[in-house]
DNA sequence: ACGGACATTGTTGCATGCAAGGACTCGTTT
DNA sequence: AAACGAGTCCTTGCATGCAACAATGTCCGT
């Protein structure tokens, strides 16, 4: 239990190589050289590749085996849009069924943490990190509390698509001022979402939550079109543009 | 290419055993006896089990290996509800972007086929089979034409959950009159959905499509609570009730 | 110089063996 | 009779070998 299994070691190594660009989109993933490079036998490599296929990072190649998948910007945009719809459903269900006292408290704690992180005159790396973690927790709480297991699973899967999760494109200190303003706007939306949920306003909560995902889409557009700072691995894995709206 | 691989043979055999009740929910799936029973070696059994985990039919067991998953009625109901939201999004996107002439024609053909299947004074097994296939095509066309790949993938996954797809709970000849009436109602909704899509009415299309999934939920409730005719494998794999709305 | 055929190398799918861990059964002790 | 310990059997994780297939390279003939 404490020692990672060989499959886990292979998974970690493969993910790292994909995100670092050592393995490029379209590249053939051959069991034997990979097993040798990672230091495990072929069996865990094969099982790790099957798992990465499940995660969408690799795809089956003609004639067997796997290729590193290429992600288009369009695909990530699609995933973010889908996440908006799913999170909207979660917020609606939650508003309809009512939030427990404990959940309301947890959501309020998130709001306070976000306010605190954004309170400085400057968005330091530490503040942004705190914000990103708060954001992850906020979205996670809503997904789990909605009470629909299929929905929670679908949200987990769409959030696992590279750069499509709620915190994937949170700006870094070097990002543009436009993205920093967007972050402040996004957190104000968090406040409104909590208000709608605790007030039992299902349609409002859903609409706000869907609109909220548009911030991630705007971040994506700024990275692609204005050359704004991108997260690690983005420039390697993502290609193409988003069609004009 | 023509001969099924050993993994495929193992997948087919395992699915059959699960749906037939030869392997019951909660039962431990041991590689060696299964490999012997199916007539393949352990490697394809292991890969098949990993694939079935991906499909949700089996789950990892504590201490390694897998168990046959039990499905609760609640879980299937959740999945159907999720499908409604996803299909609603698809119909909205389609209405917003406009349906091509070819797609409009294909959807109209589905409507005509459904009308024809339901036209008889009695719903024969053949008529219901034709309806189910038309229904599958209708829903598939909308999912693919929506133009969001992440959405199409999420729909494919939720539809793969046993008994959650659009045609999973289409009645059989021995089903109750209530379910037959529901079928006729559902097909009238198909007409309205196409009208909304081709008319560019995004919000209307979405609302109709979401409501449309409630028919599957109603079918599920009738099977569970009125003891109506259930599809093959349902009584084996599905346990529990749905909470009162 | 180009194309075709053959040989070699690399890779995948699969089978099987080994080691370690967990579960079950049997015997002994309290 | 019940509980505990030891031994045995079953299963999983993993390593490795074999056969078949595909891709690439080389050589020969036109």
Which chain pair shows the most residues in contact? A-B, 23 and 23 residues
Order of helices and strands of chain A: HEHHEEEHHHHHHHE
Residue share in helix of chain A: 55-70%
CATH class of the largest domain in chain A: Mainly Alpha
Count of separate structural domains of chain A: 2
Oligomer: homodimer
CATH superfamily membership of the largest domain in chain A, which one? GntR ligand-binding domain-like
What's the overall average pLDDT of chain A, rounded? 91
CATH topology of the largest domain in chain A: Four Helix Bundle (Hemerythrin (Met), subunit A)
Q: Can you describe what's shown?
A:
Two copies of one chain form a homodimer. With 245 residues, the first copy, chain A, is mostly helical. Chain A folds into two domains: 6-69, Orthogonal Bundle (Arc Repressor Mutant, subunit A), CATH 1.10.10; 72-239, Four Helix Bundle (Hemerythrin (Met), subunit A), CATH 1.20.120.530. Chain A is 66% helix and 5% strand. Chain A has ten helices and five strands. Chain A has helices spanning 6-20, 31-38, 42-55, 73-97, 101-117, 125-145, 149-159, 177-198, 202-225, 234-237, and strands at residues 28-29, 58-60, 66-68, 71-72, 238-239. In chain A, the strands form two sheets. A three-stranded antiparallel beta sheet of chain A has the order 1-3-2. In chain A, α4 crosses α6, α4 runs antiparallel to α7 and α4 (73-97) runs antiparallel to α9. The longest helix of chain A has 25 residues, at 73-97. Chain A starts with 5 loop residues before the first helix and ends in a 6-residue tail after the last strand. The A-B interface holds A 46-47, 50-51, 54, 74-75, 78-79, 81-82, 85-86, 89, 148-151, 154, 157-158, 161, 164 and B 46-47, 50-51, 54, 74-75, 78-79, 81-82, 85-86, 89, 148-151, 154, 157-158, 161, 164. The structure holds a DNA duplex (30 and 30 nucleotides).
């Amino acid at each position: 239990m404490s020692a990672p299994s060989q499959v886990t070691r292979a998974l970690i190594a493969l993910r790292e190589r994909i995100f670092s660009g050592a393995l490029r989109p379209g590249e053939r993933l051959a069991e034997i050289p990979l097993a040798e490079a990672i230091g495990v036998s072929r069996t865990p490599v094969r099982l790790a590749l099957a798992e990465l296929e499940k995660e969408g990072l690799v795809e089956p190649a003609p004639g067997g085996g796997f290729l590193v998948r290429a992600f288009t910007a369009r695909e990530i945009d699609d995933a973010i849009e889908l996440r908006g719809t799913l999170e909207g459903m979660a917020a609606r269900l939650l508003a309809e069924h009512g939030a427990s006292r404990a959940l309301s408290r947890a959501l309020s704690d998130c709001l306070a943490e976000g306010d605190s992180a954004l309170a400085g005159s400057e968005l330091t790396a530490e503040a942004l990190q705190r914000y990103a973690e708060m954001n992850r927790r906020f979205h996670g709480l809503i997904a789990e509390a909605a009470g629909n297991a299929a929905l929670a699973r679908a949200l987990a899967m769409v959030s696992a698509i590279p750069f499509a999760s709620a915190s994937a494109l949170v700006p870094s200190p070097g990002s543009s001022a436009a993205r920093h303003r967007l972050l402040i706007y996004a957190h104000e939306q968090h406040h409104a979402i909590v208000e709608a949920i605790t007030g039992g306003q299902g349609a409002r909560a859903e609409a706000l939550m869907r609109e909220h995902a548009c911030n991630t889409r705007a971040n994506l557009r700024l990275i692609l079109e204005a050359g704004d700072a991108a997260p690690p691995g983005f420039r390697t894995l993502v290609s193409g543009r988003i069609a004009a709206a």
